[in-house]
Amino acid sequence: MNAAPLHNPPQPAPAARKAHGSAEGTASLTLSVLAAASMYWTAPLSLIAALFTRPDEGPGDRDWVAPLVLWSCPVLFGLAAITLGVVALRVCPPRSRGSRRGMAGLSLAGAEAAVGLGLVLVHGDPMILF
Fold it and tell me: Which of 82, 86, 107, 95 is nearest to 19 (CA)?
């Protein structure tokens, strides 16, 4: 009698390969949307900062605090979105899902930066809320 098994044990099926870089494109698009949404989170905080740091009359020495609070999260999310978008474009093959999402994230982050810069230039003050 042979000690070998009568049948071969089933081998696990190989896992489906994920498109390399699709996560970076999705993250870039998500972060660029969060950059726009974070203006709603930081706006009340920047108004409170302006209330406590701006003087009643004339310019003060702490006028930079409220714009810093206002633009802190959008800038961080925007820079991360741009970085991940560039990585997605470099890693993914052209016309893949990851490269399309990376391009969408880069486009949205660029549009947000252009709108923010335009508002600052029109109002002449980085604190565009009032």
Answer: 95
